[in-house]
Specification:
The structure holds two protein chains of two kinds. By secondary structure, chain A is mainly alpha-helical. Chain A is built from 22 helices and no strands. Chain A folds into four domains: 230 residues, no CATH class; 58 residues, no CATH class; 35 residues; 96 residues, no CATH class. In chain A, helix 2 packs antiparallel against helix 5, helix 15 runs antiparallel to helix 16 and helix 18 packs antiparallel against helix 19. About 6% of the residues of chain A have low confidence. In chain B, a hairpin with a 2-residue loop joins strand 6 and strand 7. Chain B is of the alpha/beta class. In chain B, the strands form four sheets. A five-stranded parallel beta sheet of chain B has the order 2-5-8-1-9. Chain B has a two-stranded antiparallel ribbon with strand order 3-4. The chains are: A mainly alpha, B alpha/beta. At the A-B interface, helix 19, helix 20 and helix 21 of A face helix 10, helix 12 and helix 14 of B.
Chain lengths: 515, 336
């Protein structure tokens, strides 16, 4: 492998930076990659429609099934282009049959549902490994690369669906208003042409996403190998060797001495800053060492030498495990602080502090309950619905007087007549009417509220009273009272005398009878 | 149809029994005439007649198809007065309502072209569909009773009554009337769905031997004229009103300002409207004096559009009418 011919900058990256490298690679060689993709995918798309004539709904499923073979074309181009050898058309078509034949059955059957396909395909296609060697190679590449590859598959699947919907929406937006077509009709696959349209949309979405998927998976693979095989160091040494070969030995000695002096004289703060800024890198180095250790143990375990196998068994003992890599999520902008062993606090002080906190919490709880009670009192609500609110302050409700609760005096009729003869007709009728209301409320149980008007009282009496004579008297009295009170038109003396005389018959309880 | 001459020349203080009797008969005739076209909805008809007696304008709100336009047309037909209708739309201009000046090339001078507001009964259909500028032009006419075009003030012929309608369920593309403009309407009348019996009679009437479903006003006969309406309004304005009843009306209006349920309560104009409407209600009941019941009957139509719910009540889905019921239950009546 000619690492010095690699067109990309090889250095240890984290996984998502590596996928970004894949996108960069595709942007660097879009023409060759997409030509290779369409050279394979487009004829296949047409061919499948011809083969499945009348059953076009099968085509998207078959295309999806054949994706592992289609992926080989862009990977083939990227694999060569990375080393500065972009394949021409003739070479592509010449090598395509071998490319497609290579482990095709496995790719389309038991490996079809591999969620990290893009990461594993380069091992098969570019390294040409199969069987046990391939499995071992995949095990060497290990878990750190597989996780992001699985996520890459998930993201690309969603992206492809999103692009399909976006293409449909775009088509819908471009349809002129005069075309009588609803958007959901664009999703109708009942008709053959509707199915063809949906197949075309699916093919476009797949064609846009799949090369990115392959390139990103390939970049993950490259990154993993850079970690494991230290490609960046190898490249650095190669460049150094090339430079040293062109330089005189004396100058080299002076240069190395000067470099050593500078290195020794550099302030330690600088190292600290570098270390802090490269925290992720340090972690990755630790991971790499662990991985190397695991690989070594695996090699020992696979060995035919019983001593080496026994050694591997011993090394797998948890107590002898050289390293454990624990990964978890943390906020990006909040650097994780190393756990500091807390000093043992004084017991009394801690207990006092805890008691203080407890009291404060109880106080806060009480305050909260008081506020909640006050709020409920002001705005009573229930979970089932709204309870009628208090819309007015209490003093505003009883303007004027209270409800008639005391029974009327027995001689009210005579007292009213005395007021009439004294030239106070309004007061006389007021007394009669008020006494009648009191009598109706106390003796007949009429719920006369302060807000009830004369007509309200009359309606209430008509609904509740069974005594027709009493009702007729009350109606007559109400009309007379209304005319007197609001029109200042009192009745004639005969009428007033009749009312005063009749009133006791309805509202005075005879002596000896219970009310 | 016309008021008797001795009734008109009688004392301006309180109407005589003859005048009262004439007014009551006239109102019954108007009720019957409107009832020929608008089946049921008696409360709505009474409230509209009350607004007519009180010389006020009404805002009729109800779902489509409940007879808002029919009510206005029937009222205008029964009074034999000039009627105009404006269908408010988003592109309606103020000059489309009030009129405008037009240059006459032949005479080389400006001519005033009077708008549809120069009538006695104006139906402003779906008033909330026009922008605020056009609404304001109409509401100014309602308040001032005159139109000013090119600096010339043109009084509207009395009586002038606006019956504006609005639909409460289709709010998209509408311009809700501001509170200050709503205040110009004496009453806001809610038209609800008719009872099953009324609806049966309505459907039978509309579909029996008729082609189409256009408004049928053929059975509505004029029973009053403009002079009679003016006399009716004069009689209503002079009904007796005891201080206790006046105080009750003012207390009701003022109490809305103290209620936490309302962010904005009714102002003095609310109290004035309530008293005017109560007088008209008393006349409709055939009395020459106002009772607290008349006030109570008019509280909802006279106040409901002058009140703005507090945000918390609005969020809880409280309704102004329910809160006014609560107000009436809480404020003591002046019965003793």
């Amino acid at each position: 492998m000619r690492l010095d011919a690699v067109a990309a900058e090889l250095r240890p990256r984290n996984s998502w930076e590596a996928t970004d490298l894949g996108a960069t690679m595709l942007r660097r060689w879009p023409g060759p990659v997409y030509r290779a993709w369409f050279a394979l995918a487009l004829p296949l798309f047409v061919l499948l429609h011809l083969l499945c004539w009348g059953h076009w709904w099968l085509v998207p499923w078959l295309l999806w099934w054949l994706k592992p073979l289609l992926d080989r074309a862009p990977l083939y181009v990227l694999g060569h282009a990375l080393f500065g050898d972009v394949p021409d058309r003739r070479r592509f078509w010449r090598e395509l049959p071998d490319l497609l034949r290579c482990q095709a059955l496995a790719a389309l059957t038991w490996r079809r549902f591999d969620p990290a396909r893009s990461f594993h395909v380069p091992v098969t296609q570019l390294e040409g490994l199969a069987g046990k060697v391939r499995r071992r190679r995949l095990r060497d590449l290990g878990q750190p690369g597989r996780g992001p590859a699985v996520w890459l598959t998930v993201i690309c699947a969603h992206l492809e669906i999103g692009l399909d919907l976006a293409l449909i929406a775009l088509a819908w937006m471009l349809i002129p208003d005069f075309v009588d077509l609803e958007w959901y009709e664009l999703l109708d696959d009942a008709e053959p042409w509707g199915q063809l349209w949906l197949n075309a949309v699916g093919f476009c979405g797949m064609s846009l996403v799949e090369p990115f998927y392959v390139a990103a998976g390939f970049a993950l693979y490259l990154n993993r190998r850079t970690w494991l095989e230290a490609w960046d160091l190898e490249l650095g040494f190669r460049r150094l060797a090339a430079r040293l070969a062109q330089t005189r030995p004396a100058a080299v000695v002076v240069g190395l001495a000067l470099g050593a002096a500078l290195w020794v004289g550099q302030p330690s703060v600088g190292f600290a800053a570098d270390a802090a800024s490269d925290g992720d890198l340090e972690l990755d180095i630790v991971k790499m060492r662990c991985e190397q250790w695991r690989t070594r143990v695996a090699e020992l375990a696979d060995s035919t030498d019983p001593v080496q196998r026994a050694l591997a068994e011993t090394l797998r003992d948890p107590e002898l495990r050289a390293c454990v890599v624990e990964e978890r999520w943390r906020w990006r902008d909040r650097p994780e602080r190393p756990a500091v062993e807390k000093p043992v606090a004084d017991g009394a002080l801690a207990r006092g502090f805890a008691a203080g906190v407890e009291y404060a919490l109880w106080f806060a709880l009480g305050l909260l309950a008081a506020v909640a009670a006050w709020r409920l009192w002001r705005q009573p609500v229930t979970l089932r619905g709204r309870r009628p609110r208090r819309v007015l302050a209490k003093p505003a409700l009883t303007l004027g007087r209270n409800d008639p609760t005391a029974p009327p005096a027995a001689d009210l009729g005579e007292a009213a007549w005395r007021l009439w003869t004294a030239g106070q007709p309004r007061e006389a009728l007021r007394a009669l009417y008020q006494g009648s209301l009191a009598g109706l409320a106390t003796r007949h149980g009429l719920p006369v509220s302060p807000s009830a008007t004369e007509e309200d009282c009359l309606r209430l009496a008509a609904a509740r009273l069974n005594d027709a004579k009493l009702l007729e008297f009350f109606r007559r009295l109400t009309r007379v009272w209304q005319a007197t009170a609001y029109a200042h038109r009192p009745p004639d003396e005969t009428g007033a005398r009749a009312l005063c005389a009749e009133w006791p018959r309805h509202f005075v309880v005879p002596a000896g009878s219970s009310p | 149809m016309n008021a008797p001459s001795d009734a008109i020349s009688s004392t301006p203080a309180a109407p005589s029994d003859d005048q009262l009797s004439w007014a009551w008969d006239l109102l019954q005739n108007l009720r019957d005439a409107i009832g020929q076209a608008l089946i049921g909805q008696q409360a709505v008809v009474d409230q509209t007649l009350a607004a007519l007696c009180a010389a006020g304008h009404v805002l009729v709100e109800g779902a489509p198809g409940l007879g808002k336009t029919l009510l206005a047309r029937a009222l205008a037909t029964s009074v034999a007065a000039r009627f105009a209708r404006i269908q408010f739309t988003a592109d309606l201009m103020p000059s489309d309502v009030t009129g405008h000046a037009l240059y006459n090339l032949r005479d080389e001078r400006f001519e005033i072209r009077r708008g549809p507001v120069f009538c006695h009964f104006l139906l402003a259909d779906e008033i909330n569909r026009a922008p605020a500028k056009t609404q304001a032009a109409l509401l100014e006419v309602m308040q001032e009773g005159q139109v000013t075009i090119e600096g010339e003030s043109l009084p509207l012929p009395p009586p002038f009554m606006t019956l504006a309608t609005q639909n409460p369920i289709e709010q998209e593309g509408t311009y809700p009337l501001p509170e200050a403009q709503l205040d110009r309407f004496l009453l806001k009348i809610q038209i609800d769905y008719p009872s099953p019996e009324e609806e049966t009679a309505l459907v039978r009437s509309v579909t029996g031997g008729r082609v189409g479903d256009t408004l049928d006003l053929s059975r509505v006969r004029p029973v009053a004229d403009v002079a009679a309406v003016l006399e009716l309004q004069r009689i209503a304005a002079h009904l007796r009103l005891d201080d206790a009843v006046l105080n009750y009306a003012v207390r009701l209006a003022a109490t809305t300002r103290a209620m936490p349920a309302f962010a904005i309560g009714a102002g003095p104009r609310g109290g004035i409207a309530l008293v005017r409407a109560a007088r008209a209600q008393a006349l409709l009941n055939g009395r020459d004096f106002v009772t607290p019941d008349d006030v109570k009957a008019m509280v909802k139509p006279a106040l409901r559009h002058r009140l703005t719910l507090a945000a918390e009540y609005e969020m809880e889905g409280a309704r102004v009418d329910a809160l006014l019921d609560e107000l009436l239950r809480r404020v003591a009546a002046p019965r003793v």
